[in-house]
Amino acid sequence: MVHLLGGFDIVGPQGRVEVPHSAARVVAYLAIQGHPVPRMAIASAIWPDIDAVRGRANLRSTMSRIGALAPLHVATTTSLALSPNVAVDIDDLQAYARASRDSPREATAPPSGFDLEFLPGWTEDWVELERERLRQLGLHLLDEVVCTSIRNGRPGDGVDAALRAIRLDPLRESSHAGLLRALLAGGNRAAAIAHFRRVSSLMRHELGLPPSGDLTALIEEILPPRPVRRS
Q1: Where in the chain is CATH 1.25.40.10?
Q2: Structure confidence by residue, pLDDT tens digits, 73-97
Q3: What CATH architecture is 89-220?
Q4: Nearest alpha carbon to residue 45 among 27, 67, 61
């Protein structure tokens, strides 16, 4: 099993497999692609600052090391791919996303650890693009869980999912709206009002903006009436 969420790790039948950092980068790159990749493309992505000849030599050396440690890849003269026998944690997340799209009314909690950061500390361009893609995927999946939980009479699960989404993106208003809906569905009006006030303060402090009309509309019906000023 190749783990990319929360940090790079490889776990085999005999336990954890230690690999050099260059090998970890190649394995992670192949895991993201999910299909055979030309050797030249891999070398260019992993070693962008050296010439093509040295990059290919580095790749040959790295793949030799990987092969000596574990059967992680399949190779041809022109391409490399992760072995089909190797599971990858992000594949579970993407399979869940496909299932949720096919049956949105049956959405349940996403796989464990899905909201962990993708390869934390890695700064390569290809890592940062994938990190953002998975973050957005996780946020939309949590939106679906919130809606499904409220619809199925499980507002507590909706609260949990909304809070997980807010942890991923504290300024995402749709996540805060989901939390307000879940709190109100569970009859927690005081908690909803308190959260709305915290969000309002956060938005003004961080962005200089008031809460959106959608957020305000959710809470207006239960806010205490403002006292009428008499002239």
Answers
A1: 89-220
A2: 899 999 999 999 999 999 888 888 8
A3: Alpha Horseshoe (1.25)
A4: 27
* CATH topology for the 2-82 domain: Arc Repressor Mutant, subunit A (1.10.10)
Exposure letters 23-44 (e unless 16+ CB within 10 A, then b): bbbbbbbbbbbeebbebeebbe
Query: C-alpha distances in angstroms, 154 versus 99, 100, 109, 164?
Result: 20, 17, 12, 16
Residue ranges of the chain that CATH labels 1.10.10.10: 2-82
Is-contact 62 26, C-beta < 8 A? yes
Identity at 25, one-letter amino acid code: R
Distance CA(59)–CA(51), nearest Å, equals 12
Which residue is it, tokens 């090998």? Answer: 23
State the maximum Cα–Cα separation within the chain, in Å, rounded to a whole number.
87
Does an H or E element contain 145, and which? helix 125-151
DSSP per-residue codes, 66-126: HHHH---EEE-SSEEEE-TT--BHHHHHHHHHHHHHH-GGG--PPPTTTTSPBSTT---HH
The pLDDT tens digits of the residues spanning 163-208 come to 999 998 999 999 999 999 999 999 999 999 999 999 999 999 999 9
Q: Indicate the pTM of the whole model.
A: 0.78
